[in-house]
Specification:
Elements (H helix, E strand, L loop, with lengths): L3 H13 L3 H14 L4 H13 L3 H14 L4 H13 L3 H14 L4 H13 L3 H14 L4 H13 L3 H8 L9 H14 L3 H14 L4 H13 L3 H14 L4 H11 L5 H14 L4 H13 L3 H14 L4 H14 L2 H14 L4 H11 L14
């Protein structure tokens, strides 16, 4: 007959191989034989967590902690479950208790820092990340997290040092700054993203994507004059860089450098003929120059490629209206409204046409 130790060993072997159902069966068998076996309850909770059942995992792990409160790993894993359940206060309490029981618990410091950052306590979070790295200088996650936190706080030089501690980062620290800048831009933190992208291109002046991303960050802050040379530099480095050409066009058009914007959009379409937004924005630029036939062709291409793009239907309606094709214009406005019921400008223009005000100037299009 299997001993409790045998059952736990077999259960853990199944657990490590990914057979969580069989592992749970064995953990439950241990609990039948010894109802207060803390480790079996803890492992059962870990399996529940990995199966995507955080509520059940929390119940198991809280029970295990109550039976063996001096085990730091139990508190740490319970903290991970609270994180999954988005209970930051409970997660912080669990990680703190794990650290009290094991002051050298680098993983607990790292995760406590993540919680503190989410709670809006950046200084405390950075202190915990620093301690995690001090305890384990080869702890890649902690080094990367500390670098990201410092970068967020504008400490880009120190951030670079920690990014370079990550395995492989010393080979391409520019990539670390590029990736961090992308993460910041996704959170709309464009000024911080700009600082990261500047570091990336300083370290790797030939990094076309870095120049492109720097241009996007600048344009997102309204710095169009500064953005333009970034996109131009990206294109010099990589002449077939469609995204940089598109972004350059989008930065030139608001400055009324329409001829140059048109050249950019045409380049995009030579490189990527199905680029819907380039068709739409080229049409808008052509319409500004009064080239209605060409503009209409562009808008028709956009709606053919992406029928659900309400803005392209709206722009097509504007161009058709300018040309005097009022029935077709009304149909385009109606389609835009059906796709986006709250499209007030399309509703207004459709109502104006229906009321016989078809000669209203139609000059304001929508760029994608």
């Amino acid at each position: 007959m299997d001993t409790i130790g045998d059952l736990l060993v077999r259960g853990w072997q199944y657990h490590q191989s990914g057979n969580l159902d069989l592992a749970q069966q064995l953990y439950r068998r241990v609990l039948q034989l010894e109802p207060r076996h803390a480790n079996a309850m803890h492992l059962l909770g870990r399996a529940e967590y990995q199966l995507g059942h955080p509520e059940q995992a929390a119940q198991c792990m809280r029970q295990a902690v109550s039976w063996e409160p001096a085990n730091p790993a139990f508190h740490y894993n319970l903290g991970l479950v609270w994180l999954e359940l988005e209970d930051l206060d409970q997660a912080a309490a669990s990680f703190r208790q794990a650290i009290r029981l094991n002051p050298a618990y680098a993983e607990a410091f790292n995760n406590l820092a993540t919680v503190l950052w989410a709670q809006g306590l950046p200084d405390d979070a950075i202190a915990c990340y620093r301690e995690a790295v001090r305890l384990r200088p080869d702890f890649d996650d902690a080094c990367s997290n500390l670098g990201s936190a410092l970068s967020d706080q504008g400490e880009t030089a120190e951030a670079l040092a920690y990014f370079m501690q990550v395995k492989g980062a010393e080979a391409d620290p520019a990539r670390e700054f590029l990736d961090q800048g992308i993460r910041l831009a996704l959170r709309s933190e464009f000024a911080l993203a700009e600082a990261c992208f500047r570091q990336a291109v300083r370290l790797r002046p030939d990094l076309a994507e870095g120049h492109n991303r720097l241009g996007i960050a600048l344009a997102s802050q309204g710095k169009l004059l500064e953005a333009v040379p970034c996109f131009e530099h990206a294109l010099q480095l990589k002449p077939d860089f469609a995204a940089a050409a598109y972004n350059l066009g989008n930065s030139l058009a608001p400055q009324l450098r329409i001829d140059e914007a048109i050249e950019c959009y045409r380049l995009v379409l030579r490189l990527s003929p199905d680029h819907v937004k380039a068709h739409n924005n080229l049409g808008h630029a052509l319409q500004l120059q009064g080239r209605l036939g060409e503009a209409i062709d562009c808008f028709r291409a956009a709606v053919r490629l992406m029928p659900a793009l309400a803005g392209a239907h709206f722009n097509l309606g504007n161009a058709l209206c300018d040309r005097g094709d009022l029935a077709e214009a009304m149909a385009s406005y109606q389609t835009a409204i059906e796709l986006e019921p709250g499209y007030e400008e399309a509703q207004r223009r459709l109502a104006a046409l229906a009321a016989g005000a078809g000669d209203e100037p139609q000059v304001q299009g929508v760029m994608a």
